[in-house]
Design a protein that fits this description.
mainly alpha; Arc Repressor Mutant, subunit A; 2 domains; two-stranded antiparallel ribbon; 7 helices; flat
C-alpha cells in the first residue's frame, strides 16, 4: 500500500508540470515539425493548415512555459530545449503506444484491427461467378440476394 501511495504522490508532482495545453496531438505536431523543419511541410504532412501547426507549437511552448523556438525571418528555428523535448516526446509516445496495446490485450481486444471489404466487379465474368455462387448457396437463403446484386 505504501508503494501505491508514493506512486500517487509522484504522479501528482509530475502533473503539476503538465497542464491542459500539453496534449499528445500537440506533441505529434511538434515531432513532425522537428522532422520536417518548417510549418508548411509539417501542415502538408499532417493534413492541417499552417495556422493550426503554428498555434499547436505556440500553445505547446506556453504549456511547458519554456521557449522552444526563435524566429529567424519567417522561419522557426529550434532552440536546444526543443531538441531535448523531442527526445522525451519520442519516449513518451512510444511508451503510450505500448500501454494502449497492452490495455487492449488485457481487455481482450488486442491483435490490431481487421478491416473487411468487398469489391464489386462490372465485368460479365463477375456476374456469372456471382450467379453461379448464388445457386450453390441456395439452401442458405443467399440465392435471391446474390442474383439481385449480380443483375446490377
Amino acid at each position: 500500500m505504501r508503494e501505491s501511495k508514493m506512486t500517487l504522490q509522484a504522479t501528482a508532482a509530475m502533473s503539476d508540470n503538465i497542464n491542459q495545453e500539453i496534449t499528445f496531438r500537440k506533441l505529434s505536431v511538434f515531432m513532425m515539425f522537428m522532422s520536417k523543419g518548417n510549418i508548411a511541410r509539417t501542415a502538408e504532412a499532417l493534413e492541417l493548415s499552417s495556422v493550426s501547426v503554428h498555434r499547436a507549437l505556440h500553445t505547446l511552448e506556453e504549456g511547458i512555459d519554456c521557449p522552444l523556438f526563435i524566429h529567424k525571418g519567417r522561419n522557426l528555428v529550434p532552440l536546444p530545449a526543443a531538441w531535448t523535448l523531442l527526445d522525451y516526446c519520442r519516449d513518451v509516445t512510444t511508451l503510450m503506444g505500448k500501454g494502449i496495446e497492452e490495455a487492449r490485450k488485457v481487455a481482450g481486444i488486442g491483435g490490431g484491427r481487421l478491416r473487411l471489404g468487398t469489391l464489386y466487379s462490372l465485368t460479365d465474368h463477375g456476374h456469372e461467378a456471382a450467379s453461379a455462387d448464388a445457386g450453390a448457396r441456395s439452401d442458405h437463403g443467399f440465392q435471391s440476394n446474390a442474383a439481385e446484386y449480380a443483375g446490377r
